[in-house]
Amino acid sequence: DMKSIIVSQQELFFGSITDHKSICEIDLTELRDIIMYNYLHKNYKFKTNKEDIKVTHCQALTQFDMYIRDAINYNVYENFNISRRITQKDRFGGVMLPMQTSQNTERVDRLNYVDSPDYTCLLCVDVKPGSSKLIVEYDDMRRRGRTWNFPLESDAYFIFPSVCRYHISQNISDQMNIFFTTTYIQHKHKIR
């Protein structure tokens, strides 16, 4: 009798917060205004990276974080009978000017996996539809350098493993695109 276990897998969650207005009302205007204020005042999250903008706490962040935590736990429990608790590690905003491309990055520290996040979440706060794509790189066993490509628009969110490199393609619109990124640490246990 052959048995199998899953020793590794990569999950990517995505959706739109507009689809869940009945569950929670998330005011992206408030979040957009905070990101733009800090962008205009050059309040960067890290001195070495001028793409990551500080984001101060607001009601929209609390609501979005609660929605993501609940949605991931429900999805994983329903599909795998595992309870997963995630906690926010870091957060920052991003602004992409017309014709700008983001840096290709990953959110783990390769020299310190213990303190690195498990998941990265990108929320499209104010993005012109069809103006950019999220490109997430991953390896599929021996097939290296594969990519997921997702068209971006306001209200869309994407959650993927923090070990995956990613970037946002060139903003081909005539307006700024505004993003919010948060990272999460995972805590899971089997439900009996």
Précis, in short:
By secondary structure, the protein is an alpha+beta fold.
Give the low-pLDDT segments: none
Q: What's the helix-strand series?
A: EHEEHEEEEEEE
| Multimerization status | single chain
Query: Mean pLDDT, as a whole number?
Result: 85
Overall 3D form: globular
Major sheet strand order: 1-8-5-10-4
Number of helices: 2
The main pleated sheet reads as: 5 strands, antiparallel
* Structural classification: alpha+beta
Measured between the Cα atoms of the first and last residue, the distance is: 24 Å
Word description of this protein:
The protein has 2 helices and 10 strands, in the order βαββαβββββββ. The protein has a 5-stranded antiparallel β-sheet, covered by helices on one side. A 3-stranded antiparallel β-sheet has the order 7-6-9, with no helix packed on it. β6 and β7 form a beta hairpin. The model has no long low-confidence stretch (mean pLDDT about 85).
Note the topology.
Elements: E1 13-16, H1 28-40, E2 44-46, E3 49-53, H2 59-80, E4 82-96, E5 119-126, E6 133-140, E7 143-151, E8 156-161, E9 166-168, E10 177-190
Antiparallel strand pairs: 1-8, 2-3, 4-10, 5-8, 5-10, 6-7, 6-9
